[in-house]
Design brief:
Blueprint lengths: L1 E2 L15 E6 L3 E3 L4 E9 L5 E9 L4 E7 L3 E2 L4 E9 L4 E10 L3 E9 L4 E9 L3 E6 L3 E3 L3 E10 L5 E9 L4 E2 L5 E9 L4 E10 L3 E11 L3 E12 L4 E5 L3 E3 L4 E9 L5 E9 L4 E6 L4 E3 L4 E9 L3 E11 L3 E11 L3 E12 L4 E7 L4 E2 L3 E10 L5 E9 L4 E7 L4 E4 L2 E4 L2 E4 L4 E10 L3 E10 L7 E10 L3
Parallel strand pairs: 3-11, 13-20, 22-30, 32-41
Antiparallel strand pairs: 1-2, 2-4, 4-9, 5-8, 5-10, 6-9, 7-8, 10-11, 12-14, 14-18, 15-17, 15-19, 16-18, 19-20, 21-23, 23-28, 24-27, 24-29, 25-28, 26-27, 29-30, 31-33, 33-39, 34-37, 34-38, 34-40, 35-39, 36-37, 40-41
Length: 467
Amino acid sequence: MTSDVPGDRRLEGQQTPAIALEKIAPQEIQVDRETTFQIRVRNVGNATAYQVTVVDQIPRGTEFLGAKPECSRGPHGTVFWRISEIKPGEETVLSLQLLPKVAGEIGSVAQATFQAQASVRTICTKPQLQLELTVSESVLIGESATLEITVTNSGNGAATNVVLEEDVPEGFAHAAGRQLEHEIGTLRPQESRRLSLALEAVKPGVYENRLTVRADANLRDEDLRQIQVVAPELNVKIQGPSLRYLDRQAVYTISIVNPGTAAARNVELATYLPKGVKFVSADNQGQYDTQTHAVYWSLDELPANRQGDVRITVLPLEPGALKLKAAARAELGLAAAEEYEVTVESLPELVFTLADLADPIEVGSNTTYEVIVQNRGSQADTNVQLITELPPGLTPLGGSGPTQGTARGQQVVFAPLARLAPGEEAVFRINATGHAVGDHVIRAQLRSEGLRVPVTKEESTRVYSDR
């Protein structure tokens, strides 16, 4: 707008300078966003104006940043320019760079020394950005976390050059990379914009998601949110005897554990038996497959931090170092396996019977006791020795068998048998005479390298008299 110098009187034909001031400001300015006010100084007269001084007041609620051309500072927030001359029809433009700090109406009056005045007023507004985010606190690995985003300008001025920024956390991935930007543009007062962002969960853990919205005039808002990526895990473990003997059943427990933070689904567990081990049975509906020589179990779901146990019974048929293998798998590519080594050894197993071949006997008659020793084990036994002890009513006479039996007092002691192979048997006989009426008990004891404790059996013989 324009304003002439008050009291200006120009007589016809008179050469008179006349200064007109026009002050120009943006229609709308914003807090903390640099703006420019201009003063146009024109000589509308018909003579040159000399030593023109233009004075302006820094508007209340603004911060002075600079002027073009440079100005001088006066008291009480005034600035002034001195222009040596302005010829008729000539115009000079003066600029003030200001930074509004307070919302409301801002204005100032510029004047020249000869009282030409101009004024302008504008409305200073203040936009305000608000960021709202909705997202699940946890997401299963391999799935997507969807961020529902709302950006609102809750102020009373337009927010310009609005940009949304996302720092993709370490445990997530996006096809466009880790630093994402989306240009929203201008948001009018009270206007909102809604967006969705899907991030793929790729690594278990708890991560901090940072979402930022920014705009001109240093407008900014931020949202920090923790999101947990949950994931199942699988571990398997085999427990049972590591040393077994041929033809002796063994029971093994296979444990499957989910130490993760989510349930494992469609779990398949298999235990593979080595050659030389025979499958006997399995619990929990384990299915044995003769072609793969393995036992299989299925489980719909194994919750987080839970363990399941199954058992199998097997029979070793061959000696040596054998390996049981357990393997598990589930959805999301989960897999785990463990091998367990078992040493199978052969074992001697001696059993024997003691029988009286003549019972009862008459006083003064002889009787024979028969001892049959068998090795029912899978390994030969050595130093097999039989010792018999007779009661006082029987008199030992000696013994026969694979080794010689010698009477020693009331005992018949056989020399040790060097070796008794698996499936073999040895027959020993002990001869004795009955010389006292009554029931007499003979005791036979078997010893060997394979027997940790000697084995004893007893047999009773009745001696009678016909007198």
